[in-house]
Structure formats: structure tokens, C-alpha cells
Amino acid sequence: MSYCPECNSRNTVKIVYGREIPEVVEEEKEGRIKYGGMFSGKNSPDRFCKDCKHEFNVWELTDNFTNEELDQYYIKYRSKYKPDKVKYLIINEAPPTIYDNCVPPFFYNNPNCLQNSVFLEIMTTLFLPEEFIEKTRTVGHTVDLEVEMHKYLKMFKEKGFFEIDILDFPVSFLETRNITPSKLEKKVIIEMQKTLKSKLLQINKVADKDTIIIFVKKTTYNLLYSELSTKYRIANDCLVEEYGKPYLPGASGGHQKVFRQKFRKCLESFDYQFETDFSYLRKV
Which run of H or E residues covers position 35? Predict the structure, then answer.
């Protein structure tokens, strides 16, 4: 099942190209497919939403995509959801792992697989009732946040939130056979340091003196805190008093509940007004 990125509808069908043979005509008449014409190009859409009539690609990148194509993919979706004024800038270490048979997942586009943990836990904290913050299990499986990803991203944008990653590729790209966690972290830090200059330019371009910055993961905090703390307000500072350290953990590997608690604490320290009307929640 593929969900429409415009209206979140499940009522989508495959777009078929080629000769308009009787079987194709009959399937389109029955609403099981949409005929797209004789020829398809490299970027021709492969899904059609029967509700809002939007055509889109589920598989935007082929298995042999280049780093440049991956960069453009990230830029496309991140730009789509950038608010005019960034009130809260979430800086994460890297996009999530790319799994077989799914759209390359990252914060701003991952409607068809369940590996976008940062997205799930942030949206849970912002847009679900407070009792979900204390739940131990992954709440995304309960409320279907991934299914309605684009609805929540639009709300995220309206609230002035924006997310960027320091690395432009998943950490898994740096993994080798039998690599230890400590050695992998060292490799990650080296790669993050290589991007520091360009990422600082990106941050300074989207943020202003009133922007509140939230660092996700210790590596991100250690790399950027000294560079940004003199120019922007850092939400992680509030964590020291209650937790002893300013680090916000990754949102996976059993840290989901702690992530939600600390993320909420960061926002509360700046008097963020959390939702009280949850009429937008889809009944499941």
C-alpha cells in the first residue's frame, strides 16, 4: 500500500505505461490502475491518487542511485517543509538506515516503512496527548504516524520546526564487517567534522537570533555547541539541571521514552505551548 504524499489517502493505484491493450483499458475502467501513456521517462510517476488526483513516485531512487541523486532527494523534501521563519531547529546526526525495498528514509519522507525513529518520537511528543510520552513501546505502531506522515510534517512546519542532519548519508554507509560501536562512532565524528563548514553555513542561513536549537545525540552536541551557543539559544542547556548532562539521546535502540521525555523538557524550558485539541488524530 502506498500513501499519497499530498492528501495521505490510501486510495492510490499503479500507473501503467505501454500499449493500451484491452486488459489495460478494462483495469483502468474498473479503477484498479491508471493508464499513463505509451512511454515513460526516467522520472515518470508510478502512482496515482484517486482522491486528490496527484501523481507521484514511490520509488524515486533506483537501487544504484548516486550520492548526488541522494543529496537532491534530501534537498527536495527538506525544502518543501521549511517554514518561512524557523523557530525551532532540530539538528540530528544523520538520516536513518536505508533498507531494501523501501524509499530511502529520512525525516522528511518515509511514508512506506517503519524505520524513521526520530520522526516518530518527535511527532509523538508534539502532536499526541501527553500520556504517550511515558509509554515504553513505540507509539507509532499504535497511532499510525507514518501512514499520515505528510499531514504531521505540515503541522510541524506550521509550528516553525525544521530538521537537518549533519551527515548527508546514513551512518550505516560507514559500517564494515565486525566494526565495533566505538570505532564506528570515531568514523562518524571524522565524517561530521568534514561537513562542519558547509553545515554551519546551512544553519546560519535558516536560523536567526531567536531560533531555538535542539541537538540530537552526543556527537552532534559536541561538534556544534561551541560554534552555535554564542549566536543562538540552545535548548539542551536545560537538561543539565535535571539529568546532569545536556545530551538528547538517539530516538531508537530502547531510548525512545527517554528521548520523548527530554525533548519535551527542552521545549517546556522555552514555554512551548503543546497541543490540547487532538481532533486531528485519525481513529485506528
Answer: strand 33-37
Q: Which residue in 13, 98, 83 sits closest to 54, CA to CA?
A: 13
**Domains assigned to the chain:** 12-56 (no CATH), 67-268 (3.40.470)
Whether 49 contacts 56, CB under 8 Å: yes
Burial degree of 235 (CB within 10 A; 0-12, 13-18, 19+): buried
Nearest to 66 by CA among 163, 169, 164: 169
Burial of 96 (0-12, 13-18, 19+ CB in 10 A): buried
Distance CA 123, CA 108 (A): 12
Torsion sign, CA atoms 145, 215, 103, 79: positive
The whole-angstrom separation of Cα 34 and Cα 1 is 16
Interval 172-216: pLDDT, tens: 889 988 899 999 999 999 999 999 999 999 999 999 999 999 999
| Per-residue model confidence as pLDDT tens digits over 57-98 | 776 666 677 778 777 878 888 888 999 999 999 999 998 877
What's the CA gap between 151 and 144, in Å, rounded? 12
What angle, rounded to 10 degrees, do the helices at 117-127 and 256-268 form? Answer: 50
pTM of the entire structure? 0.81
Tell me which H or E stretch contains 203.
helix 181-206
Q: Could you give the CA distance from residue 81 to residue 153 in angstroms, rounded to a whole number?
A: 7
Question: CA 165, CA 70: separation in Å to the nearest integer?
Answer: 13
DSSP state of 212: E
